[in-house]
Specification:
The protein has 408 residues and is α+β, with helices and mostly antiparallel strands. The chain is built from 13 helices and 16 strands. It has 2 domains: 179 residues, no CATH class; 179 residues, no CATH class. Helix 2 runs antiparallel to helix 9.
């Protein structure tokens, strides 16, 4: 009952100057709202990255060309071409636990159909590629190993590339496209996968797949690959497959002990951990920046409560003269500070959730508001009220009743 009566007194005191109360809460409102919105954006980015990595397929190991240093310079993924056809055949033949494997070679070329032309991502791959990367077909079927071996002019096409070249709602299977003036017949129409991951993410559906032999012999003239995609038979076999791949490639490339590999081998789990760690760091950074607003809001509460103690010194003296104890005064001002922060926190939660949904709807950003972020922001705002309200409350409680009554 005493706490309830003190709460009523605190609310009355805050209502005396409504505008000042609202301005004091504004820092907490903005801080809580910003924390929830920023964490929602970070969580959404993390969830998106995880789903895109899962869309790569199951138990995938990537072998990427490059990673050698020359003259102080490090060459990254895909440059220079160090993965050869002999490496691909050796990996298929000699590494145990490999369920599927496909090379990858990128082609920079215009694709034309009728009077339409487009620049999708053209990739030369093996017949296992669509199974490794969990692609599904809207119509048609995959090209065969015989198509790869004989360098047949067949192709698979993604949804975006198909809509650009043939129009929406058209089944492209059986249609002919020209890549560098070489005619390719579309045998498979792939289902949509959406955007890729990363800051420079691309539309995964804006793609054309052709047999790698066709790409090398008819389009690029290259003799090396950009990468290999390997699928282990089970998750438990991934470490052993990775080790065997590294050992075999070092042997095939004649890389001696202590020398640096001219290729990079990464498991799907390693890629996921790296990507999600980056996203987690970004989320923490955004949350910390937004948390500064909460700190500023807490300082604002302390400032206003100190002003309030000064303004109400005579009132405090009267209350003490009629029997109020120091802890009663302490409780009154502390409740006022906590009320400011809790009400501001509740409004901030609504602002943060609304802002994240608005960003998702208007900007197309994927956001994910977790209950943990809401609870954390609310508890933190209450703690801000207690922490920054304690000093002014303690100052009020220590006032001498006689001096307070004399205060003008």
């Amino acid at each position: 009952m005493i706490v309830l009566a003190t709460l009523k007194i605190a609310v009355r005191a805050l209502k005396r100057n409504t505008l000042r109360t609202l301005l004091t809460m504004l820092g907490i409102i903005i801080g809580v709202g910003a924390v929830i919105a920023m964490v929602s954006i970070g969580n959404g980015a993390k969830a998106r990255i995880e789903s895109q990595i899962a869309a790569m397929g199951q138990n995938v190991i990537l072998v990427m060309s490059g990673n050698i240093s020359r003259g102080g310079f490090r060459f990254g993924f895909g440059n220079p071409g160090t993965l050869k056809v002999e490496d691909y055949e050796a990996l298929r033949r000699e590494v145990e636990g490999v369920a599927a494997i496909s090379p990858e070679i990128r082609v920079s070329a215009q694709v034309a159909a009728g009077n339409q032309n487009h620049f999708p991502t053209v990739v030369g791959v093996g017949s296992d590629y669509v199974d490794i990367r969990s692609w599904r077909f809207a119509s048609g079927a995959n090209f065969t190993e015989a198509d790869v071996r004989n360098a047949n002019k067949v192709a698979l096409i993604g949804q975006t590339a198909s809509e650009t070249l043939f129009g929406a709602g058209t089944d492209p299977v059986g249609q002919v496209i020209r890549i560098k003036n070489a005619p390719f017949t579309i045998v498979g129409f792939l289902k949509s996968k959406g955007m890729g991951m990363g800051l420079s993410s691309q539309d995964q559906d804006d793609v054309v797949f052709v047999p790698y032999n066709s790409a090398m012999k008819r389009l690029t003239g290259d003799t090396t690959f950009r990468s290999f995609s390997i699928q282990a038979a089970t998750p438990d076999l991934m470490p052993s497959v990775q080790s065997e791949v590294i050992e075999l490639l070092r042997q095939k490339h004649r890389i001696g002990p202590g020398r640096e590999d001219d290729f990079i081998v990464r498991t799907q789990r390693e890629i996921s951990e790296t990507a999600t760690e980056t996203s987690r760091t970004m989320t923490m950074l955004l949350g910390c920046i937004a948390g500064v607003s909460l700190l500023v809001g807490g300082i604002g509460i302390m400032n206003i409560m100190l002003v309030s103690v000064t303004e109400r010194t005579r009132e405090i003296g009267v209350r003490m003269a009629v029997g109020a104890r120091g802890k009663d005064i302490l409780m009154q001002f502390l409740i006022e500070a906590v009320t400011l922060s809790i009400v501001g926190g509740l409004i901030g939660i609504l602002l943060g959730v609304g802002s994240s949904r608005l960003l998702s709807a208007k900007m197309g950003w994927e956001t994910l508001t977790s209950p943990e972020s809401i609870v954390t922001a609310f508890v933190f705002s209450a703690a801000i009220g207690i922490f920054f309200g304690f000093y002014p409350a303690r100052k009020a409680a220590k006032l001498d009743p006689i001096d307070a009554l004399r205060y003008e």
